[in-house]
Amino acid sequence: MTAPALSLPKQVAQHREVMLNLLREVAPESAKWVEELRGRRRRKPTVVTIGETNRGKSSLVNALLGQPGLSPVDADVATATYLVFGHAEQWEARACYPGQLAPVPVDLSQLVNWVSAAHELPEGQLPPRYVEVDGPVELLTNVSIVDTPGVGGLDSVHGELALEAAASATALLFVVDASAPFTVGELNFLRNVGDRVETVIFALSKMDAYRGWRQVLEANQGLLRDHAPRFADAVFYPVSARMFEMAAKAPNPDAVAMLREKSGVPALAEAVQELVIGKAAMLAEANTLRAIGTSLDEVQVQLSAEARALTTGADEAKVLRERKEELTAQRKSSTRGWQVKMRTETQRCRMENTHEVSREMRDMQTWFRQAIDAADKDKLAALPGEVDVALQVVSRRISHSVGARLNRIGETVLAGLFTRDELAVLQAQYARNGQPPVVLRTPEKRPGTSEDKLMVMMGISGGVGLGKLATMPLGIFGAAAAGTLGVVVAPVTIVLGLGAGWWIAKTRKHAQEKQHMKTWLTDAIADARSTLDQMVADQLIQAEQELSLALDDALGKRIAAIEEELREVDKAMRLGATERSKRLQQVNKHLAEVGSGKERADELLSRIRSAKVRPAGASSPAQGTSAAG
């Protein structure tokens, strides 16, 4: 009788231990690093709720948390601020301005003031990027839940903000209601999000209010097959937040249990737990496999060098000495060709970013001028908030493009300096150190006077300290790709407009008439463009300086490594023939194990990426989850 096939998680765990044992034997330092990295993987997965206005999204979040009224329901006019719910022993909240200002404690009774433009912010406060709310909720011990602003619709600039949130989520909780099938905006959003997120859970809300919810559900499934085929086999969770809230007022425990079960909320919560946490565990294992792959790349280079030393010692020593002289000359040269190349690439990056900022701002102004022409009184009043969100979206696009172009500079210059094998060793060294070679320092903070507030809100945020060049494989610390030897420059996060639209709207007098609004819009976008141009230019200047120092340091590290390799070659040449043959046999055995281990790791990573994780018992439309995972 043949043994039953191992499940994918067990296969991954088995291969992980085999490779760790190999690393413990041939590279103990690397094995220790992988184990430490795996020990730090306890970061909770994140579920981001997405939905159009009035779909019952915030009510459903409150029901999942068992806290009616916690997340403000259908705030009159949402801002770009979103809510992040986490676990704590006692309820606490804070408004967050990442990378710029210290968090500000928030009274839960005033939460709506921080997330709705229809309510005044507490006196002297600025709009936050997000508000963290922590409390003693069992569901939140294993997962964080993000409630995104829904005003404006998924086919507006708020939809782009939702796409951005989706990109960093472990899973999406996509909320539609039972009043009617998917809108065009919802279907377009699902088409766009298909390549950005692994897992989507669908919730059909307000099913108690609409008797025809089953027909709507069937229509939604048909629309997904036609317009978003990736989710064609999705299973929906019909839910009623209102019914779940009614359970708290039921006359007896039996009625409480019945209402809660019929609400569908417990089934959805169970799916969130099982599906998301299960998927997160597999993604964590994937990161462990990538870290092992990084170490195996380095070990393979070192074993290959040792094999050459044992077979052609004198020739290998000659090659190493020539390479050391070449790199030393590169480092000492007054012209430094690599610096010239770096400056050329940086200048090209600067021009490309200038053109991109100009195009983005021009397109945004055109879009809003058309929106003003078509707006009624209420739409006109809401436009400043929409401009605020659009400024955030545009600034993040620019931020990502700056990061991508800095990536290209690093790849171009480093690829010209080092061989593929040398890059593999450098990547592993920097990954183990945990500190990238380039850290863009936060600029001096100006006093928070009223004159400075606009600049603060339009300043560099989101963690300028995260703008780092790191020579490590993509995916080691959660990047998207894997199995490459390319170099990564983590994006310089330049987030313009955390409150720019809000501040300009509050500090400039403008009438509601359309022509006055167009004048205000022109001024606001001109201010934003000027500030963004300056921020990008400053960051590129700093990045060039830091990159130059990092490359010089990398050259020094490689020269030192060559000197160590020369000492190892000298030792190998002094070995007797028998001992040398025995050692060569062992090195070749390890090389074969490394090669097959890397192939197996790549195969398992591919299977993890395509794996579909379902919660146990998902068998009916009322209890299931998306097949998108």
What does this structure look like?
The chain has helices at residues 8-26, 28-39, 57-65, 111-115, 157-167, 184-193, 213-227, 241-247, 253-263, 265-311, 313-332, 337-374, 377-417, 420-433, 453-457, 500-507, 514-573, 577-610; strands at 46-51, 82-87, 92-97, 101-105, 130-135, 144-147, 171-177, 199-205, 236-238, 438-439, 468-470, 488-489. The protein has 629 residues and is α/β, with parallel strands linked by helices. It has 2 domains: 55-263, 3-Layer(aba) Sandwich (Rossmann fold), CATH 3.40.50.300; 312-571. Strands 4-3-5-2-6-1-7-8-9 form a 9-stranded mixed beta sheet, with helices on both faces. The longest helix is centred in the last third of the chain and has 60 residues, at 514-573. Mean pLDDT is 74; it is low at 435-501 and 615-629.
* Rg over C-alpha atoms, rounded to the nearest angstrom: 28 Å
With strands numbered from the N-terminus, the spatial order across the biggest sheet is: 4-3-5-2-6-1-7-8-9
The dominant shape is globular
For the record, give the distance between the C-alpha atoms at the N and C termini, rounded to a whole number.
34 Å
How many separate domains make up the residues? Answer: 2
Task: Give the integer mean of the pLDDT values.
Answer: 74
Please report which band the strand proportion falls in: under 5%, 5-15%, 15-25%, 25-35%, 35-45% or over 45%. 5-15%
